[in-house]
Design brief:
Largest sheet: 7 strands, mixed
Structural class: alpha/beta
Shape: elongated
């Protein structure tokens, strides 16, 4: 059987693949993301995951590479990860009281056969109306930094969401059901 490589340094994605019993190695992609405003969000998510997967697959043999990219879309604006507390506060204020989309693109590549599957999944999250004090308290926790949209639904950020429509695991960073279905095309069966 071919080895499986997760082309991501994300601890959340690693935990999700472990949760479904997949045996894999981690080889983070050092691909530098370039976002393009000319692409629609689903196209951009698929492109970014594809570029990450290709960067790692080019260094591998006898392997299946999985890569993903997740971001938020709120009122037509794409939000990635905040780099500062001020950016995190701004993102949380923008999401407060609104429904936004979490879009994850994922790509699976068989490094030897050059077989590629790329998909994107969208989940809607309705955020409760946050007070400035709640935003400050959450940002002070440190959790929002390096998280798409400045929150982690699987952590303290769970108290920010009022409603989720779609795949919860997609919000964490990897749509497990869609991924498992796609892995079947590569001879990898979770069940």
């Amino acid at each position: 059987m071919k080895k499986i490589i997760l082309a991501s340094a994300s601890p959340q994605r690693k935990k999700l693949l472990e949760q479904i019993g997949l045996e894999f190695e981690v080889e983070p992609s050092n691909h530098i993301e370039v976002t393009s405003s000319t692409l629609k969000p689903h196209q951009l998510a698929r492109l970014l995951s594809y570029e990450k997967a290709v960067a790692v697959a080019g260094k591998c043999h006898n392997a299946i590479v999985i890569a993903a990219d997740t971001f938020i879309v709120c009122q037509g604006k794409i939000m990635g990860k905040p780099h500062t507390e001020a950016e995190a506060r701004g993102m949380l204020a923008a999401l407060s009281g609104k429904t936004h989309s979490v879009i994850t693109g994922f790509t699976i590549i068989d490094a030897d056969k050059n077989k590629i599957v790329t998909q994107s999944v969208e989940t809607k999250v309705s955020m409760k109306k946050l007070t400035p004090a709640e935003i400050d308290a959450y940002v002070t926790s440190g959790e929002p930094l390096d998280r798409a949209g400045a929150y982690a639904i699987q952590g303290l950020g769970a108290v920010l969401a009022e409603k989720i429509e779609g795949d919860y695991f997609n919000v964490v960073g990897l749509p497990l059901s869609a991924l498992a279905e796609s892995l079947k095309e590569f001879g990898v069966h979770i069940l």
